[in-house]
Amino acid sequence: MLIKRRRGWELPEQEATPESAFLHRRALLGAGMGAMGLGLAGSALLGGRDAARAATADPTSDLYPARRNPTYTPDRDLTPERDAANYNNYYEFGTSKYIAPAAASLKIRPWTVKIDGLVDKPFEIGVDDLIRKVTLEERLYRHRCVEAWSMAVPWTGFPLRDLVALAKPTSDAKYIVMRTFLDRAQAPGQKQFWYPWPYTEGLTLAEATNDLAFLATGIYGKPLGNQFGAPIRLAVPWKYGFKSVKAINQISFTAERPKTFWEGLQASEYGFWANVNPQVPHPRWSQASERVLGTDERRPTLLFNGYGEFVADIYKDLKNERLWA
Question: Which residues neighbour 306 within 8 Å (Cβ) at sequence distance 6 or greater?
């Protein structure tokens, strides 16, 4: 008989299900209108809304919600959607956390992802074609920002290793480099010339092929909202959040370690590895605890954000590396 032993930090699946459906609601009509005016205005508004929705519909929306993978259950309730959706770092659209309205302007269809570098044959693929080549699943992951706040969210997507297999890297490839879009007309933050745009992040192939490394295309049972990094982003929950690059449109395989976005700006504070460690403070604040988004709670930070049993072996022979941001 198979006996499943629950880890000490797990909670029952049924407790990890809160989700708010309040976003993007509108009042359809103002008060004081006559019955005929109400009906006509209501019909026009609904027709316009349906047309707008059809024009921006995600061609893969039929794949959501996806089956949940129960392997990675967080040690807390999920963050309510309203909190996660309205508190985002996305420097392409500004330095405020409340960038959802600005990010909504990004056109995410059509969207292609270029695969190049040390691969068998470079190619480009439409994000919708890519999504239908893989099997989507939902995973409940903790997310720990380097700024010492955290959340727990239900990503939908697929393991990054599935894309690595599709790319067929050569034996010389040691790193995977991910870049986001570069479009100053759509992303006003990219007009700030002192940032090294486009946003670039990287992993070793050992990290990229670990099962935890995840390419997210949805959240809360729906396709990603723009503020989360639609149409496709990285989620590596054992690392600080700045490693999880948003709106990916190029993935390259290289033999040399890349210079990543924040590492290029301030390497003493934001290193290549950026693994979570409560014992290693940021130069300007402690990492020993974290503020749980949407609450007044502070929790002790966990080594590797609590995922050490899955990833610690990757680093056992890297004793001379600066593994912690």
Answer: 9, 75, 142
